[in-house]
Amino acid sequence: MKDEITNNTNHTNSPLRVRSLDYLEQLESEAIHIMREVAGQFERPALLFSGGKDSIVLVHLALKAFRPGKFPFPLVHIDTGHNFQEALDFRDSLVEELEERLIVRKVEDTIKAKQLTELKGKFASRNALQTYTLLDAIEEFEFDCCIGGARRDEEKARAKERIFSVRDEFGQWNPKLQRPELWNTYNGKIHKGENVRAFPISNWTELDVWNYIRRENIALPSIYFSHEREVLEYDGQLVAISKFIQLEESDIISVKKVRYRTVGDMTCTAAVESDAETLDEVINEIIVTKTSERGETRIDDKVSEAAMEDRKKNGYF
Amino acid sequence: MDILRFITAGSVDDGKSTLIGRLLYDSKSILIDQLEAIEKQTKNREDGEIDLALLTDGLRAEREQGITIDVAYKYFSTPKRKFIIADAPGHIQYTRNMVTGASNANLAIILVDARNGVAEQTRRHSIITSLLGIKHVVLAINKMDLVDYSQDVYNNIMIDYEQVAKTLGLKNIKYIPISALHGDNIVDLSDKYPWYNGDSLLHYLESVEVHADINLTDARFPVQYVIRPQTEELHDYRGYAGKITSGIYKKGDQVIVLPAGIESIISKIEIAGNEVEEAFAPQSVVLHLKDDIDISRGDLIVQKNNQPKTEQEIEVLLCWMDNKPLIKGNKYLLQLNSRVVRTVIKDIEYKLDVNSLERIYEFEKTGLNDIVKATLKTASLLPFDSYKDLPNNGGAILIDETSLVTVGACMLQ
After folding, report:
1. Is CATH 3.40.50.2300 what the domain over A22-207+307-313 is classified as, yes or no?
2. Which end of chain B is less congested by CB atoms within 10 angstroms, N or C?
3. B60 and A67 in contact by Cβ < 8 A?
4. Which of B34, B228, B395 sits opposite A295 (nearest CB)?
């Protein structure tokens, strides 16, 4: 336990301490409360783990919520096959350290089994196809609730999503039929076939996540920090060179010092130029940065103004 | 640095979305790509100016119709505070959305159009603010530029609103003259209002004291989940996980578990695996009791010398949130924090006119957005507090047993 969680609650023992929580402690307590509601209300929950910083924070919060007990859910990784190796290595070592159960389901297998058609083009992404694999996994394991690391500050459609978001048997979100969600009371009652997506860090911003990672000293995959990488500059964004993107002769490849702000598919996650090698440096860069997280690093959201709303309606996270 | 959660009430015409856009824009919380996206959309419109309201209207239907349908949450920070805005629609047909947004708010910003003064909807928004027990109110008198920055207009609205506030028992009201469109008195004070010597809106939001609103006297701890590792080394470990909704718990406290009424003593308190001597609201903790008793999710652990009511017949103010009407004699599930009990609607006494606060005793049905006084009978004992005294243990939701949808918000009396 002590090895897993940094002891940052020392100050609560001080008699001089005013009985109040700062903003990160409030957010943390709220998130733990939501996770325990999931554990208390559902038979077969799961935690969706991508290897990105938000899901790593979820794991950290789960430790705080449930240790010394085991997690009341497995970690589930929907593997697009287009991952950063650093993120996969990190995932495996984290799971080994935690001694928790990891379920991996591969988009590749779904594509083969269901004869799905992959997107074509330069940065053909499997992001949308993840939904099929996720829904299959939900069916296979009969998950009634999936905990995800989505935040409301990421995007306008997410700003309206509930903390307990009910999906129909096709995994679809219906923004017009959302349940009212009052106080800190979460209604997780569902019919067979439906499931709930629960978002414990809904009220966190990108900066809150980073500040929390710094305060709690949470380890992250190395790609979140400055490193040299071969990249292609495309439409103002830097895309890592990998076997998953199609290069043309006219493409100019350069080596740049970059880091990632989000970790998704190699095909649709762009890097930012950066010298930030430590958490402090990363946070400083974020504070002065003028572009929001999704806009800078997600190639897939720019397609249309309602891109995220459409994907969520179709069962996306 | 702490958190302030606030709701903005007012219709599109009052400039609510523009105000929020202005707060985000002027506090530099809007980033380039978000601005580019709204600039792109604005180009398709006739007037051509950047429409800050577009920052908050998230769903396609809302953009198409130019209205806010659902509660949207927006975030910004200053060095002093993190702010969470619940942006709720203002029309009467969205009363339930405002109730939803108001349920977690520390403060309400109620917008009035300086040209119209205190209107029917101002009254309605104030009534909901009062029903939900929001402790701080800002009356933002907007569009001052359209009334020549007149102090008389400001004063008259203030005098009118004092009357409304008095009837509703609203306190801590701050009156701020603004122009959301031009940014007057939002972040910085504008020199067009030499007669106004109060705070700018943002300055007030940064400085209003909300920590004192957390009740640290009446200790309530709803059990969410029981942690039982059942490993060899932790064979006897049995921890009750939950969030303290109010009050303080200390090691050695004499407690009682409700509704069963079993007494015990707190033997250990843990926060994230670390043992502490005491814990307070709103911390998420694990409590251990000295005695081996049967406790499960839905039980409430309180101090022996400070207990809530434990009853089966409960009067409530109920905001109905479903398209199907509320029917006397129907059964529903009532969820108060982690406790869920079956309940029947025994009686519906009167309907509250949310525009005038009048009680209507003769009415056909209780429909969507109606607020009624009702009596519930629960299938088992429910430990609760009056919403007015302790909202964290007095606000409950009603769930339809067949659709499983949340259909009502109850403020227990």
Report:
1. no
2. N
3. no
4. B34
